[in-house]
Amino acid sequence: MKPLAQPTPDTREWFALIDEGRLTVPRCRECRAFFLYPRSSCPRCGHRAIELVDAAGTGTLLSFVINHRGPEGFVPPYALAIVELAEGPHLMGTLRAPDLEAVEVGTSVRVAFEQRGDRRVVCFDMERAA
Ligand SMILES: [Zn+2]
Fold it and tell me: Which residues form the ChsH2 C-terminal OB-fold domain (predicted)?
């Protein structure tokens, strides 16, 4: 099976919501900054009041690589992407697209989830052209 992240005390709630099919983005209650990865204090102002806000579920492809060989569980070719979420923070995940060779930086993507055992992992789907 593909690997799974091991939650830490600071990321446990965030991963538990992903397992329920909800992507959230941590936001500072003091300065309102969104950030990722989840942590116990704001990377901008240091405040420790953090809330998890449901993500819009959309983003823009910032960078990607197409892997033609992969570790156990991954069927090549597959794309690994860095996405700028609508809220601003960046998140890495697998990119699912009908034609990987047609993928371009700047394309709109939508958050999706891949089931791995009893857990879920965030991935991204290419937005269909209107
Ligand atoms: Zn802050």
Answer: 53-114
Q: Is the same domain home to 60 and 120?
A: yes
- Cα of 52 vs centre of ligand 1, distance in Å, is 13
Number of domains in the chain: 2
What is the distance in A from the centroid of ligand 1 to the CA of 99? Answer: 40
Whether the pLDDT of residue 130 is over 60: the answer is no
CA of 40 to the centre of ligand 1 (A): 11
Measured in Å, residue 81 CA sits from the centre of ligand 1 at 27
Tens of pLDDT, residue by residue over 4-29, are 999 999 999 999 999 999 999 999 99
Distance 59 CA to ligand 1 centre (A): 22
Q: Are residues 77 and 50 in the same domain?
A: no
- 80: CATH: 2.40.50
Peptide bond into 37 cis (omega under 30): yes
Cα dist. 26→7, 14, 22, 128 in Å?
15, 8, 13, 28
Residue 96 has a CB neighbour count (10 Å cut-off) of: 17
Please say if the pLDDT value at position 117 is more than 60.
yes
